[in-house]
Amino acid sequence: MELKYGKSDFEKGHYALYGLMCIYGIELLPDNVAECRENMLEIFDDFLALSDEDDLHRAGAYVLSQNIVHGDAITMLTNDGAAISFPEWGYLGKGKFQRRDFRFDTLTQMSSFGGEDTLFADLGNHEVFTPTKNYAAMSVGELAS
Predict the structure, then answer these.
(1) How far apart are CA 13 and CA 16, in angstroms?
(2) With DSSP H G I counted as helix, E B as strand and the rest as coil, what are the percentages for the chain, rounded to 5?
(3) In this predicted model, what pLDDT tens digit does every residue of 84-131 receive, in sequence order?
(4) Were 96 and a residue from 51, 104, 137, 140 both cysteine, which residue would form a disulfide, CB within 3.0 to 4.6 Å?
C-alpha cells in the first residue's frame, strides 16, 4: 500500500479502505464482535492518521459493521435469527465503491460445485452467485453517512 499509493493521500486512503473491505468475520460473542471492530478501526485510523470526525474513519466503521457479523457460523444465522449475508465490495476508482450482498449459506454450498470431477464442474457461473442486493456506486462520504 505505502509503496504503490503512498504518494497520493487520496489513493492511499481509498485503497486502505478497500483493503478493510476485504476482511470478513463471524463471531458468536457480542463483546468479541465489538472488540474486533474497534481494534481493526484503530489500526486503520493509525495507518491513515484519522480522527473520529474524518469521513474515511466513519466509512471504515460502517464497512466493519457490515463485514464483521455477530452470528453463528455453524447455523449461518445472525444473533437475531436472520441468514448471514456478506457484502462484496469493489473499488471502481476515482473514489467510488460498489457493493453487492450475498448470502453466506449459499456461498458455502457453492464450494462443492467447482471441482473438476463433480457432476457440476461445467456449470461455471451459476445463479447462486446472483447477489441478493445490488447498490449504486458510493463515495466515501456516502459510506460515512
Answers:
(1) 5
(2) 50, 20, 30
(3) 999 999 999 999 999 999 999 988 876 655 555 555 555 555 555 789
(4) 137
The C-alpha cell of 17 is what?
479502505
Q: Are 104 and 78 in contact (CB under 8 A)?
A: no
Q: Which of 145, 99, 98, 108 is nearest to 129 (CA)?
A: 108
Question: Total domain count for the chain?
Answer: 1
pLDDT digits (tens, 9 = 90+) for 22-73: 999 999 999 999 999 999 999 999 999 999 999 999 999 999 999 999 999 9
Is the Cα dihedral 53, 93, 129, 25 positive or negative? Answer: negative
Q: Starting at the earlier edge strand, list the strands of the sheet with 77-78.
A: 25-27, 68-72, 77-78
Domain that holds residue 76: 2-144
